[in-house]
Structures are given as structure tokens and as C-alpha cells.
Design goal:
Order of helices and strands: EHEHEEHEEEHH
Radius of gyration: 16 Å
Number of strands: 7
Distance between the termini: 12 Å
Strand content: 15-25%
Structural class: alpha/beta
Number of domains: 1
Shape: globular
CATH class: Alpha Beta
Helix content: 25-40%
CATH architecture: Alpha-Beta Complex
Number of helices: 5
Largest sheet: 7 strands, mixed
Length: about 190
């Protein structure tokens, strides 16, 4: 089966390909000639995933899936949430985003958080949503060199290492994206 993955984020594409382990052939946006930035203007993570999937299906005619992910921090009333990628500004810089988040939590003892990924699948004229959640805590200083985004400051439940310290094999079993992607795979395999 071939599906377009509506993303230009190379880290995300690599991670999804690793999780899929060859079960689905992914086409990138570049491979279908989509070089424009797809607007992410929805107020929710679900909404942005739907916007991206619908954009590709309506404009290019492909079955596809898109995801959106946000980090939701309890002490910050769910921030940065839908604004995770641009929390510190439109430049979408991971270090700036982490520094802003750590500064916002500097005097907080409550540091629980969760990553949430929603995948919107447009297949044969129908839309399906899959949600993956990874609960954990925001640590006080960055640790680790793997992963991307907020991985160096997020320690998943039942682990003493951050996502950025865990091997990709471990992360790709326990992460929010892995959980949502596994639901997608299970759904496609059940057809």
C-alpha cells in the first residue's frame, strides 16, 4: 500500500518510516510535487492534522495521512499544546522553545506533561483519527542528543532517561507518535 505522509519534517518522516518498518510505502510531499507550506491554523492538535490531510487529498487527490503533535504541560494549563513548534516564535527553533518552557516552569514543582499525537487518515473517501499519548515529566535541564523537538527535556513515565537519551528502538515503541502510528497500522491491517 502507498500513502502520502503530509509532512516536510525530515525527523518525523524518518521516525514514522522506522515505526512502519516497511509495512506501508510512504510518499513524501516533495515526491507528489507539494512544496508549499501547508497552513496549520486550527485551534487544536486534531484540527491541524485534519487540515493537513484534507489539503493533500483535496489539492493533489491522494489518500494520505497527516499528524500533528503537541506537548501539554499540566502546570501551564496545557501549553504549549497546539503551539508547540512555534512556542518561542515563528522561527520554530527547538532550543528556543525548550528554553522558554523551562523558564516558564522555573518555580514550579508540578512538572507533569504529556505528548499528544493525532493522525488523520484520508482513505477511500473516509477520514479516520488515531490518538497516541505519552505521559511523563519535564526535567529541569536538557539531557541527551537523540530525537528532536522537546525530547531532551521530556522524561516518559517509568523511565529515568529523556526521549533524547533513549535509543530510537525504545522511543519508537513507547512514544506518542509510535502509539498513534500503531493504531494506524492496526487499522490498515484490519481492512
Amino acid at each position: 500500500m502507498k500513502l502520502v505522509f503530509a509532512s516536510n519534517n525530515l525527523n518525523k518522516i524518518k521516525e514514522i518510516q522506522s515505526i512502519l518498518n516497511g509495512s506501508i510505502e510512504l510518499l513524501s510531499l516533495e515526491e507528489i510535487g507539494c512544496n508549499e507550506e501547508i497552513p496549520e491554523t486550527a485551534a487544536t492538535i486534531e484540527g491541524n492534522a485534519i487540515l493537513k490531510a484534507n489539503y493533500v487529498t483535496q489539492k493533489y487527490g491522494y489518500d494520505c495521512f497527516a499528524d500533528d503533535t503537541g506537548l501539554e504541560v499540566t502546570a501551564l494549563n496545557g501549553e504549549p499544546g497546539v503551539f508547540s513548534a512555534r512556542y518561542a516564535g515563528q522561527q520554530k527553533n527547538a532550543d528556543d522553545n525548550m528554553n522558554k518552557l523551562l523558564d516558564s516552569l522555573i518555580d514550579k514543582e508540578e512538572r507533569s506533561a504529556q505528548f499528544k499525537t493525532v493522525i488523520a487518515l484520508n482513505l477511500s473517501g473516509q477520514q479516520h483519527l488515531f490518538t497516541g499519548i505519552a505521559k511523563g515529566n519535564i526535567i529541569r535541564k536538557k539531557r541527551g542528543n537523540h530525537g528532536f523537538g522537546y525530547d531532551p527535556i521530556f522524561e516518559p513515565e517509568n523511565y529515568t532517561k529523556t526521549f533524547a537519551e533513549l535509543s530510537s528502538e525504545v522511543k519508537n515503541k513507547i512514544s506518542h507518535r509510535a502509539k498513534a502510528t500503531q493504531q494506524l497500522i492496526d487499522f490498515l491491517n484490519s481492512m
